[in-house]
């Protein structure tokens, strides 16, 4: 709970900048069934409609169903916990009356999924609870505030992400010992998942696709794919995309090997050319990943490198925040496509932690994918992972 | 996927009744991080903004980011899967143009959390994608439709819930063998959780509070509480609230034991009186749990029994749907309190599956809680669990 307490302090300090006097961080119900990306600032799941409010001066109040009061008090995070039986209306209006905020932030964003907490139905309920009060007209979006709080990592958060990365790098070393002809994608996925579970850690995304494993040439275009019965063979690229959650913080890394054919001492030229282009795309993006740049500017550098090297234009963004989860919301290092909303416009800040990635399909051989984590510092970005600089070659036996 | 396919057929059949010509079942992004209670009709999690549409004639289309296309096609659930790179706008408008629905249902509800799928930000995005088309003005709430689809269980769903109940009842039998003086609440919770994990099953709610365990008198009022260091002692009630998810369907059951003191052959009179009142409250509610009744009418019968027996008025609803999760949304068997929204008004239907429950605090002894599952049939309700009819007595050694 120490990190959560520090994040609430950070949030209070950022409210003035975003013109939010009171932030309704979460207004939700049954968050065990319908998760809220803001729950990390609340500290627990709740059952009945609940409001978690933070004032610009740092005071905080939780308004929860009486059955949840004990567990929320037990967190020790909220200055005041008010329980209710029939309706949260009176407590909510009373808190707002006493703070009298000019602008009341509600956590929603059309661009940033991790800052889009409130459901449409709960927004309607909130408006109805504030009917015939002056507060209904004072509701504004707190989406950008939520995104900045999430994406400006505290030193303890960066350390926690680094711990997840280090464990993931150990898993990649263990994967290398398993990569032999005849191994199937599914067999490798099962082994990797058992190692993670035995260590008591979690998956940074759905385990059906974690890790993503690609052995050899793909019949389908690049995408989020489920490992299949394909066997690793000499002359195959072996590509693994893996994200592990350790103590609530996540990694997201990709590594690539080439299984030499009999008599080969190096990968074929077209494989080497693609690996070099992939690495150069990572480096081109990293070179401009610094405070004040917009995400689309970083993406453009990386994208241009790939096109200039003669490969098809990537259909994905170059990077995304990493934190509690692998896709941690806020700004995207991506093109200004509608599917990314306004997130490619968000200026990069110090203490952002990004995954930067590039994938290329090498016809006849398979997929090359590299993905690293990097933290933004004053004048540039520093890798948090140990970046893969060379294609890793495996002997056929 | 067979149940999901049957549920989509059931949904198409119910659309006309609810005046929905095309149902946008899910319009979401990053559902791995921000879960959608409608995902059970989609069959998978998605990353980029995606629309899953069902027409009243049963035709279905999924519009997903190109990286998700392969995995959604692989489900075999959606007649057509359209991938996009930059924006879902064109595909979405094209599908609506070809179906030309008069009323387009969007899944939100201010009352029913499990039918409140779309976030506020995604609703805004949907409106923006439909700008300058006739479809923006045709959006209506599909919340009641979603609730009916979820709560009218198919035979396979009832069977799957019964399987979860049977496993849970086995766990209760095993719990009884552990209840000895000196056992702490936390020790018992850890044991129960290890049995569930070893069996490969899941938790019907957050595992921090699953099972809820109450040994002896409580200093706090009834509520969602976390097991502590309290030791079981002779003269204590032992109360366990446990929900287990087996193959995607859940149970939610409560059982109560009394640990006899030296020389006792039965529980004290005040304990017996409270147990009888609890059982009678269950029976009173069950007697009126039938198609056509409103939830609040069922709750009122049970509530009246408790008050007439001289106990304080319960602060909780008498019952809730059980299915994919323990609190499965739709109607509540509860009082018309604002926190339950309109859900106590929803008429009960055949093939609804409810948890019915009553808890009483017995000062000096602890908590009595009974909770059963029941399926509604043509003329009444039938227990799916083997109901606890007597207080279970334990010898002190």
Relevant terms:
397 residues; alpha+beta; 6-stranded mixed β-sheet; 18 strands; 32% helix
What is the compact description of this entry?
Chain A has 397 residues and is of the alpha+beta class.
Structural notes for this entry:
- The structure is a homodimer of 397-residue chains.
- With 397 residues, chain A is α+β, with helices and mostly antiparallel strands.
- In chain A, 32% of the residues lie in helices and 22% in strands.
- The first copy, chain A, contains 10 helices and 18 strands.
- In chain A, the strands form 4 sheets. A 6-stranded mixed sheet of chain A has the order 4-3-2-1-5-6.
- In chain A, strand 2 and strand 3 form a beta hairpin.
- In chain A, helix 1 crosses helix 6 and helix 9 runs antiparallel to helix 10.
- The longest helix of chain A is centred in the middle third of the chain and has 24 residues.
- The N and C termini of chain A lie far apart (49 Å).
- Chains A and B meet through helix 3 and helix 5 of A and helix 3 and helix 5 of B.
């Amino acid at each position: 709970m120490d990190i959560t307490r520090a994040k609430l302090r950070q949030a209070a300090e950022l409210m003035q900048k975003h013109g939010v006097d009171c932030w309704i961080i979460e207004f939700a119900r049954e968050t065990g069934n319908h998760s809220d990306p803001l729950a990390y600032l609340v500290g627990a799941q709740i059952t009945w409609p609940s409001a978690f409010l933070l004032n610009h001066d740092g005071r905080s109040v939780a308004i929860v169903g009486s059955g949840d009061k004990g567990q929320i008090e037990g967190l020790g995070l909220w200055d005041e916990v008010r329980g209710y039986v029939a309706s949260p209306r009176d407590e909510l209006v009373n808190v707002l009356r006493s703070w009298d905020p000019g602008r009341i932030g509600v956590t929603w964003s059309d661009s940033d999924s991790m800052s889009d907490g409130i459901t449409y139905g709960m927004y309607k309920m909130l408006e109805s609870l504030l009917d015939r009060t002056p507060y209904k007209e004072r509701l504004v979006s707190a989406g950008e505030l939520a995104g900045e709080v999430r994406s400006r990592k505290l030193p303890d958060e960066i350390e926690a992400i680094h711990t997840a990365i280090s464990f993931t790098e150990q898993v990649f070393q263990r994967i290398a010992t398993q990569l032999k002809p005849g191994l199937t994608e599914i067999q490798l996925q099962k082994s990797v998942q058992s190692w993670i579970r035995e260590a008591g850690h979690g998956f940074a995304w759905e385990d059906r696709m974690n890790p993503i494993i690609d052995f050899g040439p793909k019949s389908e275009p690049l995408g989020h794919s489920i490992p299949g019965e394909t066997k690793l063979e000499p002359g195959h690229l072996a590509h693994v995309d893996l994200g592990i959650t350790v103590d609530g913080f996540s990694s997201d890394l990709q590594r690539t090997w080439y299984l030499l054919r009999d008599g080969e001492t190096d990968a074929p030229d077209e494989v080497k050319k693609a690996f070099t282009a992939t690495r150069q795309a990572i480096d081109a993006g990293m070179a401009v990943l610094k405070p004040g740049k917009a995400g689309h500017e970083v993406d453009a550098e990386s994208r241009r490198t790939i096109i200039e090297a003669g490969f098809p234009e990537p259909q994905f963004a170059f990077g995304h925040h990493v934190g509690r989860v692998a896709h941690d919301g806020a700004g995207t290092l991506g093109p200004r496509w509608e599917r990314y909303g306004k997130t490619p416009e968000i200026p990069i800040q110090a203490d952002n932690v990004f995954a930067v990635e590039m994938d290329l399909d090498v016809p006849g051989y398979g997929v090359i994918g590299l993905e690293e984590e990097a933290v933004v510092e004053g004048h540039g970005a520093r890798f948090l992972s140990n970046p893969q600089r060379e294609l890793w070659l495996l002997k056929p036996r």
